[in-house]
């Protein structure tokens, strides 16, 4: 896999212009495509999904001049290139099993402290919602969620999405907190 | 675009590495172009992780989860966060949701609030230097008290109320019907666990208490075995209030000279009503 080429500012600007004439919109599209390429490589079991996504973007940038006549959805063009990158990756990779190493107990404690702090930063209503949603188990959990959705006057799936967004924000907050703790 | 239950199942198979080549391409193209579908996949990841930690995946799903799903570092991070989150949930009881009817349908509040902000906002000083100094003094004092409590916790510590002593032997499983059952009287303040150790090694041990969701509830480090009446015992005390009606496992590990831990057969017990 050729990783020598790096994305220059000019090439990046040209890529954004290809994605959308509006710079903000182009930036959003770029972030969306990159995030989703990472997810796709991760779903295919690749150990370095960020590197592979960046390599895909680099390859597309190199071909921009050839793409002037391309009229399809840009994300799908990235997908075609990602497939080729993945094949190259499969040919070159050394098989490694990704066993999650046990974390030192001090790290676990730190993460717990961060989570506790992040929980306190939620609004009381969101804190209650996320605690209620994820508490209990099995049958009790299903019943509890139905009651919760009814109380909130929303469908079960809307509750599921809302609870998950809070959970994602908690995880991001914890990552930030852990980053601050180590710097 | 709304994702239906059949598509949710396809996403689940995709996450576990199972779909056909045709499905794979269809799913991935949609991932790139459909926001709702992408969000559904991210939700599916967390739900799989929860099911893994709750031990509700089938054997084949569990194998796929461990060999395929966890290959990506970001998912290992998610798993780690989920463990902490489960632990938090196990130790936290939400109050009645009597004010939640009007939860706004908005982005979660945390993303907009940097962690550093408001950290010492409870202090009555506008001068941040004074606030931080006072906070530091409080932290030192609290930390000192916590250190004293922590270092006295374990074998000797008892809380108000009676102490319930339970002796556990290794290797009993839930399926064998031999699980030690604890019926804690209401006045119990402390549960003293005595683990019979078959190993004769003198290194220090670590004990981790896990609930039935495999969520870590408590961890004890640097435990030393003691000889009593011809048995080698590891002992530590648990506040009775954290033990709910549930199945528990005590995972015991020996600390090796290189600092690593080697797991040895675990202990099971059940807390009855």
Walkthrough of the structure:
The complex is a heterodimer of chains A (183) and B (273). With 183 residues, chain A is an all-alpha fold. Chain A contains 8 helices and no strands. In chain B, the strands form 2 sheets. Chain B has a 5-stranded mixed sheet with strand order 2-9-8-4-5. A 4-stranded mixed sheet of chain B has the order 1-3-7-6, with no helix packed on it. In chain B, strand 6 (226-228) and strand 7 form a beta hairpin. In chain B, helix 1 crosses helix 3 and helix 2 (21-33) crosses helix 3. Chain B is elongated, with a radius of gyration of 24 Å. The chains are: A mainly alpha (183), B alpha+beta (273). At the A-B interface, helix 2, helix 4, helix 5, helix 6 and helix 7 of A face helix 2, helix 3, helix 5 and strand 5 of B.
Q: Helix and strand succession of chain A?
A: HHHHHHHH
Mean pLDDT of chain A: 85
- Gross geometry of chain A: elongated
Largest interface: A-B, 73 and 67 residues
Q: Main sheet of chain B, how many strands, which sense, barrel?
A: 5 strands, mixed
**Which structural class is indicated by helix and strand composition of chain A?**
mainly alpha
Strand order of the largest sheet of chain B: 2-9-8-4-5
In which range does the helix fraction of chain B lie? 25-40%
Q: What is the CA-CA span between the terminal residues of chain A?
A: 34 Å
Beta-strand percentage of chain B? 15-25%
Question: What is the share of helical residues of chain A?
Answer: over 70%
Report low-confidence residues of chain A grouped into runs of 5 or more: 96-101
- Helix run count of chain B: 6
Strand content of chain A: under 5%
Counting DSSP H or I runs of 4 or more residues, the number of helices of chain A is 8
For the secondary structure, the number of strands of chain A is 0
Main sheet of chain A, how many strands, which sense, barrel?
A: none
Give the total of beta strands of chain B.
Answer: 9
Could you tell me how far the N terminus lies from the C terminus of chain B, measured between alpha carbons in angstroms?
A: 47 Å
